[in-house]
Design a protein that fits this description.
Number of strands: 9
Number of helices: 1
Largest sheet: 9 strands, antiparallel
Strand content: over 45%
Number of domains: 1
Helix content: under 10%
Structural class: mainly beta
Radius of gyration: 14 Å
């Protein structure tokens, strides 16, 4: 999770795998709201993280498979438009669903808190 150095209202959620950054989303509300209610996020074009951002939180994020007998794959789940995530950062913790909404042309996603460990 990063924050803009220009305006503190702009946050960015970035997900990476072992090979680097895969996806970035704009977080439009204060971070304290993330665990309380569903939030719409705007997916940014995939590129390296912006240099005008300050890192606020980093930590493990485990991709949870849809079924216990399957293996989760971040790139495949991004392409499918549905991620089940378990964040273990300082600010962002717990289980979330991140889903691409059909009316957003692939850019509008919804982050929904599911629960805590």
């Amino acid at each position: 999770m990063s924050r803009s150095q220009i305006t503190s209202a702009f946050h960015q959620l970035s997900l990476e795998d072992a090979w680097g950054c895969l996806a970035h989303w704009v977080v439009p509300l204060p971070l304290k709201h993330l665990a309380k209610r569903p939030m719409l996020l705007w997916r940014l074009p995939t590129a390296g993280p912006a240099s005008a951002l300050t890192c606020l939180d980093t930590g493990p994020c485990r991709l949870v498979p849809a079924h216990p007998d399957t293996r989760a794959d971040l790139r495949a789940d991004l392409d499918e438009g549905l991620l089940r995530l378990n964040f273990s950062g300082q600010l962002l913790r717990g289980y979330f669903r991140l889903q691409c909404l059909p009316e957003g042309g692939g850019q509008l996603w919804q982050l929904t808190p599911i629960g805590y460990v």
